[in-house]
User: Fold this.
Amino acid sequence: MSAPALSEVLAQLKAQIAGATPAAGPTALPERLARLAAAAGLGRFECEVLLLAALPALEPDGAAVLAAAQGDARLRLPSVAFALSSLAEANWQAFAPEAPLRRLALIGLTDESVASLAGIALPERVLHHLMALDGIDAELLAVSTPLEPRFELGGSHGELMRQFGAKLSSDSKGLAPVFELVGADRNAALAIAAAGARAAGRRAYQVVAEALPAAAGERARLAQLWSRESILAGTLPVLDLSDVTGPGEVRSALRFAAAIAGPLALVAAEPLAVPGRDSLRLVVPRPTMADQRTLWAAAGANASDVDRLLGTFTASPEIIADVTANIGADLAPVAGSGPAVPLADRLWAETRVRLRPRLDELAQRIDVRSQWSDLILPHRQFEMLKAIAAQVRQRRQVHHNWGFGGSNGRGLGITALFSGPSGTGKTLAAEVVGGALELDVYRVDLSAAVSKWIGETEKNLRRLFDAAEDSCAILLFDEADQLFAKRTEVKDSHDRYANLEVSYLLQRMESYRGLAILTTNLRSNIDNAFLRRIRFLVDFPLPEAVERQRIWRLAFPSGAPLDGIEVERLAQLTVAGGSIKNIALNAAFIAADEGSPIRMGHLRRAARAEYDKLSKPLTEGELRGWSQEAPHG
Assistant:
């Protein structure tokens, strides 16, 4: 016999309350209510309380019948006392805060000084569910995002997704553990949760921990609504803690997770246990080269075109899907744009751009435009930079194909220290190496990464290196003196921890797959113990006169109007390349303001200003042979 319709059961209940028909024995429950009862552990009395609360909303004269039965025209909702006196199998425990009806927010009680006189209200979301109108609660939609599988998961990620889905499918009573999806690849973890939930017949929603309300009461309300939604709609909240770093924020988010009844997934960079809940930890690895090759092939890319990608980038299934969808298979040139760009170059450029967003939030990307010809250095330093670029370019061949990487993979990072006075080209050199390798260069502000709070510096650095790992970007740590200065005597726990922070940074640099560069103005300030762990030490000396001439020639763009410029005289100024660039630029502004070409007089005025800025005297020897300074000076 099929289950009766909700309207039939409500009509019978109304007639019984009005006394039109005698109370009958238990009738079958509507299908939706029967399923809800099984999922939430409701007894017969609790089910009839829900029907009683639905009566004024769904029956035309339901509110009037309830008011008449309770002897008060103002009572448009059934009271707790009325439910206890008029329904079979009544019990006070059903209205306790920890009982399913209130714990899962299936009913609400109006505020009354006498508990038995409180009215029983049926929340709109529960009413819609009983009427077969599905849709997630509006309050939850405001703080979450539906997760949809956007690409196929293969290899190790596909296996994790199958484990996740199988365990979630076996959860018939909401007893599944918390699923911990741990790893640096946030998008892969979210994709595993979305696809695993779908395989288990559930819908996953991403809840970003940082977006949770600060007030404890509001968080408790949201946890209660997620618990209810798990029962009503089979949702799976996926709490994303990837960007949460503060200990207080982490504890608050975990308390919120502990308050959610039913299945729950956590996405985090490191293991985080939810208090009072068993956990099933699934470590989400970065896709292997074999996994990536399979995904690239499935997306239509030729094996020869992806070899270079595999040696540098670690592309997630999402990135590969986005790149191939954006590029397509058409290699025909666009009208008027010249010859078609080879597919391998297009894949490289598109993948590089797609891997930027996470790192863009943590460091400053330098717009790389410089080439080897822009770098003026002594031959030895120039060749060392070429060697650095060659090691980055050939690391896959040497480490993986030739076996020099060994079995543990430790110590394979390429680290360099660029030392020398300001303006000698340290940052420019990093740009040139990045341009030659077609890799992004990011400047890292160490003062922002180093925290006074114990443990926070490592977390900041971990986020940075994890974000950079996939793109193999060049990380430039400017002014490393502040962190790598000679180690002080350990007098307290803070001194000890400062040394640990430096060791941690060096450890991450040594294991980083890309190139990490430290810069310093004074190499003598760096502890020798740290220097021994750096592969390349490149000194950037002040340029000699011949090198300064070459720098001066590069300082003036081809479109700049020049009149009587003597590069040999300009090279007498004993300044670094950065100061030469400043002098040339400032002289150009002086000349432009006068409406004249750039002349030696303008450069003399600009040089005097630059020397004043450097607190350095401009000697007669440096100005020997110069024409007299223009009278406007």
Notes: Residues 372-539 form a domain with the Rossmann fold fold (CATH 3.40.50.300). Residues 329-336, 486-497, 629-633 have pLDDT under 50 and may be disordered.
